[in-house]
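Posted in: Structural Biology > Protein-Ligand Complexes

Title: Requesting predicted complex, cobalamin in pocket

I'd be grateful if someone could produce the 3D structure tokens for the following input. Sequence and ligand are given below.
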Amino acid sequence: MSDQKILLILMPVFWPKMPPLGINYLKAFADSQGFSVQAWDLNNRFYNLASQDLKKEWLISCNTNLEENILKIVETTHPKEWRACLKAIADYDAVGFSVFKSNFKATQEVARRLKRLNPRVKILFGGPEIARRYFKADSKFNPPQKSPGFSPWDEWRCAFSAKGSEAPDFSPGNFTEFCDHVIVGEGERPFVEYLKKKTLPSLCAFQELPDLENLPYPRFDGLKQAVYPRPDAAALLFSRGCPRRCRFCSERLLYHSFRRRSVESLLDEIAFHKTRGVRYFVFHDSMFNADVKALNAFCDGVIKRFGSILWEAQIGVQRGMSLTLLKKIKKSGCYNLFIGLESGCDKTLKNMQKGFNKTEALSLFKNFKKADLNFGVSLIVGYPTETKEDFAESLGFILKNKDFIPKVEQINPFVPYDGTNVCVEKGAASYQEALGRMEVALKAFKEHGIRMTNAFVGNLIEKK
Ligand code: B12
Ligand code: SF4
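-- Reply #1 --
Done. Output follows.
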């Protein structure tokens, strides 16, 4: 048991529709180790207080303007609530923030204020934006060189400058002013180490649990599902990481190793959610079918224990996805799958290191149709090696096979992500050209009656 008061926070702006997994997984793990910590979803709390117009803005991804101003907006529209909230946070001994690109600005600002209100409070930063900044500085981290009087910020900067790269940009302000410990990647181990020792190195990177077999799942103590806009839905994780190494992918950078939970534990979690009125199960795995055998066992387990449940997930084109398995997936209640196709051109697929070709993709899509499974594909246009001819081939593949591709779920121009290793070749499409290709594709999809998910069209393009 810790004698410290510990709080985990998710600041706005973030997707507000379901309880977030990050802080709640950390809480569940800490609880299982005998510690008592609180998890506050301030994103949801202030989303619920927002006006209808602001709520609409909240749902727009990459809404840079909102991301930069959200704290000001919250303070202006709900000053009393915000002041009380800040005061309550400052009363904790340690506060861990879950940091995404979309809440980075607000998180930094709150952390800075907390340090002013209570200089003794320890502040921890973890989450995907921290991982991105780690890779931005250097994908191969050098052990910090310690000398007396070194601050964590110096250690951090020194480690990166030793590699000749820039220190991560935590501007404005000095990092040490407001953050004591930075956790890159999976948080459970370093967080519990902090609870046990009341300290940590200034930077902990990729200290992963050896396996997730019986990883305690979030119980959302006392939290009513009704406070979320989708009260009948819950997010779940079967696995963390991805065994594939697609060049452009930022997901594969979040965890070093691919691990998954036991089927039994996942089924128990589903049973637990059913008692809370949850009907829709949304898997947040990077690649839900990375372990095809486990997927098979999951479907068998669902059918045996519940008959069927309503579920959706993101999968890859993968060998072993037999028609028998697809029919089982359907029988277990799957209502939608999101497939990372990315291109219909073999050269581009190879350059992306996707691990399959278009013939394999098409054969899987045809079997989806036979199994009556609903799905959509995601596409990237203007990948750095994609020539005009490659783009035409990719688009042609979608149009020719529209009877087997029910929906384009997501389409975006290629955007490089820190830490990924995309090779830019001579003659590569510029971002402007990529945007142009997206317009051409959208027009063609419309003309050919191909369905699209509007919210995911160009959703990685920064809105100013
Ligand atoms: C499902 C998902 C969505 C869903 C639902 C969002 C949701 N409610 O989570 C939807 C489709 C809506 C979505 C939308 C977007 N998403 Co999204 N999404 C995901 C995905 C696949 C899973 C999120 C999840 O539940 N993870 C599981 C939990 C357990 O992991 P976690 O939160 O990272 O927490 C762990 C660690 O990070 C760490 N940790 C986290 N916080 C803290 C705090 C402390 C103190 C410590 C010690 C540790 C720690 O420990 C936790 C447990 O191990 C992730 C990628 C991924 N595989 O995680 C992307 C991801 C979060 N999305 C991302 C992005 C960019 C977006 C979009 C902007 C665009 C898009 N099209 O994807 C929009 C933005 C929406 C919005 N307005 O906020 C990026 C964020 C990058 C960044 N630098 O912030 C990610 C990381 C994908 C990626 N690799 O680039 N997304
Ligand atoms: S299969 Fe998907 S999650 Fe895995 S590396 Fe490729 S793009 Fe990333």
